[in-house]
Design brief:
32% of the residues lie in helices and 18% in strands.
Length: 346
């Protein structure tokens, strides 16, 4: 373990200016407001994990703030950061060999003792330095983490790159993480964007008819009150939208919105029996290009394991949903950004 991982995306995906970055992220956090209908009044004292996006800050930075505002920083001393591998094929899961991660706001030291404990399990490989520095799914969370824990020299990070682990490896990883989960001073960040829609992503599923959303995530609103069961009923899904359709009955962006909400609805109760299977079934059926699907699966397995015999289980509250743009024709493209907060039973 040696050296500091450079902030390789500073100056392109986000500003490398210390003051400019601090101002941008602080403004994003200041824009976050309580949502009474969701009992969301950040920071959230019983929050244990968040799902937040990892695109360039001009795209997903405002949405990510809704997750980071919820983190109860006063009691947290260690953050596990799980992100998907975009640039290198990884059959399993991998750990960093660096001692710290650089951000324009200051370095974040890695928890070397914990990383060594995890490495000793035999589940993990080590990331190449180039893989570590090329990957944005981890780096795009670092400035937010450094900012909300500003002045906290005791904070340490455990970054984990999640590739394509087998089902058994994913379960083993959750078993290895369980003891850290039960530490009150440990927090988990799951890095994921949601739907990447468009021919450039080889993803153009389309619902030609959708009902009103049962649980619209702000700022989305539903015009009609419907039962939550409506959202979980599979609808006919066209696997490939016809680019010849210039004026579809249901706007493409609305179809994407519905499909993403299906996924969020399945994640709301990760401790329920069958949650992992339902999640995989949804991904298989829709082919939704949720890049952090595997880190999310690890979290589901972890919650299933820890709360297996407990009557009251953690629940996700999704507090923000945005799209990078609104797709109108088959030539358009967009990426969806979701912020969710996992709350422990009180």
């Amino acid at each position: 373990m040696s050296g500091v991982r450079e902030a390789t995306h500073a100056g392109s995906w986000y500003t490398s200016s210390r003051s400019g970055l601090r101002n941008q992220l602080s403004q994003n956090l200041s824009a976050v407001k309580p949502i009474s209908t969701l009992d969301y009044d950040p920071p959230v004292s019983n929050a244990k994990a968040i799902i937040a996006p990892h695109a360039g800050y001009s795209y997903s930075g405002p949405a990510a703030a809704w997750a980071y505002a919820a983190v109860p920083t006063e009691k947290i001393k260690r953050v596990f950061l799980l992100g998907p591998s975009h640039h290198a094929y990884l059959p399993g899961v991998a750990l960093s060999k660096f001692e710290a991660y650089e951000t324009p706001l200051g370095d974040i030291p890695l928890d070397i003792d914990t990383i060594d404990e995890l490495r000793a399990t035999g589940i993990f490989s080590d990331m190449k330095s180039s893989t570590d520095e090329d990957e944005h799914s981890l780096e795009m969370h670092l400035p937010y983490i450094r900012l909300i824990f500003q002045g906290r020299d005791d904070l340490k990070l455990v970054p984990i790159l999640v590739g394509h682990p087998s089902a058994s490896t994913s379960v083993k990883l959750s078993e290895a993480l369980a003891k850290y989960w039960q530490d009150d001073e440990t927090f988990f960040v799951i890095s994921s964007d949601f739907c990447h829609w468009g021919s450039r992503f080889s993803c153009t599923p389309y619902y030609s008819n959708v009902p009103p959303l049962a649980n619209p995530v702000p700022p989305v609103k539903s015009s009609t009150s419907v039962t939550s069961s409506t959202l979980t009923q599979p609808l006919e899904l066209v696997k490939k939208f016809s680019s010849a359709s210039s004026n579809p009955d249901v706007p493409i962006w609305k179809s994407i919105e519905y499909m993403d909400h299906e996924g969020m609805d399945l994640l709301r109760k990760p401790g329920e029996e069958g949650a992992v299977e339902k999640w995989h079934g949804y991904l298989d059926r829709t082919k939704n290009t949720i890049c952090g699907r595997n880190p999310i699966t690890v979290l589901l397995n972890l919650v299933q394991l820890v709360y297996k015999d407990q009557p009251v289980k953690p629940e996700f509250t999704f507090v923000r949903y945005e799209q990078s743009s609104r797709c109108v024709t088959g030539k358009d493209s967009s990426v969806s950004y979701v912020s969710g907060v996992l709350r422990l039973p009180q």
